[in-house]
Amino acid sequence: MATSPRSVDTISLCSTVSSCPDRNGFYGGFQRTEKPKEPLSKAQIIAREKKWLYMIDNWSLYMSKNYKKIRDRCRKGIPKSVRPRAWFYLSGAYLLKKKNPTVYKELLEQPGNPHVIEEIKKDKHRQFPFHEMFLDEDKVGQIELFNVLKAYSIYNPKVGFCQAQAPIAAFLLMHLPAEDAFWVFVSVCDVYLEDYFITGLEVLQNDAGILEGLLKKTCPPAYRHLQKHKVEPLLYMTDWFLCAMTRTLPWETLLRVWDCFLAEGIRVIFKVALVIIGASLNQHKVRKQCNGLCETLEVLRSPPEHVLEEDFIINNIQRLNLRVEDFQIEHTRQKNRRAKQKAMQEAAAATTASTSHGSAVSSSSSGAGGSNGYRL
């Protein structure tokens, strides 16, 4: 998986570290917030909290009759005090937990696959190393992160454990109690990012094609530039999608994106990616300086700071001229393209096998040595 400069925090302690954490618990790293966010008035905060609490208390009614209200309030940003509970409901985790009240505890009591357990142990210390929850092994963050990842590997052995899951689980643990975080994590992995973590990454490859098609519609100059320099989407979007932007965006931006992501699904990650690519490569002078694959990837992996700011990302993903139908059209197009490719590969393989078999028979009949035959 490609590693962007912005995700270097997860593998080395090379940033300036403060002696006290910011309001989100970060001692350092690019997600540390130095300047406090301009607050809403106390009256505005209370009013928003009341609206959300009433909505959560009547959740089934809103989901069935007034989902647009939920979506619109998520786009405005969920109040910090309500966000954990809101995410728990938005993701459907509350239903999973209600249906399986003892499952998390039972999973923790099971030993799990030894190989998978060892992989989780190797990876848990790499997640948000500048955050107060994950500073060292005996901190509650690393302990709970291990538990959540282990429990999921047993809950869904088809997936087991993928390194890209770890930052998502750690991110959720910063907001929710471990058991609630586990069920949100299950929902994200099994529904929002369904089949993303299965060996082969076929779904991610399909979504890479969809992203390319949508970019052609939303920002033709950037699309043409990437095509010209043969910059394949998987070279820059893998980390964005597999980690659901948790290793890419500044903290306040990430929270707002996840408010929308849990309400609207993977389309939000597509839109964020399109905004980053478009804003980074839309200017002619920038494209002119990026006269090759490496230079282009450098820009995409480390976009200008203003491009990743909360207001810029949120405002622009809502301005993108994309309908649900656009996603469906691209999905169908990519599905058909990949089916055609697969059929051609199978036909080619069948032809090769037939030719090889015929040659082997011919060689055997004429007494030719094996060194003159086809090498498979």
From TrEMBL:
This is TBC1 domain family member 10A. Residues 347-366 have a biased composition (Low complexity). Residues 334-376 are annotated as: Disordered. GO terms for molecular function: GTPase activator activity; small GTPase binding. Pfam families: RabGAP-TBC. One of its GO terms (cellular component) is plasma membrane. Coiled coil: none annotated. Keywords: GTPase activation. Residues 77-265 form the Rab-GAP TBC domain. Residues 367-376 have a biased composition (Gly residues).
